[in-house]
Amino acid sequence: MTHTTATTAHHRPRWWTELALLALVYVAYSAGRLLARGDVSTAVDNGLAILRAERLVSLDFETPLNRLFTEHAAIGVPADFVYASLHYLVTPAILVWLFRRRPLQYRAARTWLMVSTLLGLVGFILMPTCPPRLLEAGQGFVDTMAQYSSYGWWGAEASAPRGMGGFTNQYAAMPSLHVGWALWCGVLLWRYGRTPLMRTLAVAYPLVTVIVVMGTANHYFLDAAAGAAVMGAGLLLAKPAMRLADRVRVRFARGGAAAPAAAGAPVVGGGCHTSTGERIPGQRTSSAAGTTSTTSTTSTTTSTTITADTTSTAGASPDAASGAVAHRSHAGGADDAASAAAR
What we know:
The chain has 12 helices and 2 strands, in the order ααααααααααββαα.
């Protein structure tokens, strides 16, 4: 996964803003799960419909797996530990690993996870689903979390810690975000892991999660498939979501910078503002100013010369005065020609 933007190319994410953002999203997600509790009878009907569809095409893998986990504690107990813990440990660990080792790819991965989680929440709201373990006994499922609750910290009523079962939505089986988050972890481990061990974990962790969620009777096979589909949709929407976030950020940044810029602009009058580098509207260019200065200097020099000549010839002989006047006329003509050429 290689989605990056100009923002991520130059700025490392701040850990405190990321922590606050992820905490906010998770709290909103957890609250949404609780608020999405629908009618229990509707959730049971949806669960039975999924089970019938699976049995129609022989995809009810959860039935034999649950029987295996129930009959063999050596399999069932570790599976319950995996279900109750890794979902909440591996995912944050991958986020921290990416933040520290792959900061340019972190934002895209985090956005993918967040968008997919919100899509899963929509699924919980639209289709509350009873998990296999809560169906009537005649369907053949056993709640392994309840059967082996004495081995772990979870209570008999849910995978939550004892006494906190009432704070979970047990009818949020469709889609399986246990599978979705595990798939997210696997893709990132495969993409950015550099050792054979990392590649092995990238494949094993999602597969083990799929088997565990069905064997413990917490999800149907179609729940797992839906979890993978949600992650695929989240991946497609992650890049547009980042572009939208960047546009919003730039718009707010421009709005904050516009006011100081407007306040510092020199006002000439009547709402007219000078352009950049211009003090007075219509200011002459440097070339025109230079030409005017040259002409003025020439005129001043000529005037001074004429005055001096007049003074010096005041007491001279008539012939000398006449020659001086002729000389001044010739000089004045030359100056006029030079001034005209300059213009």
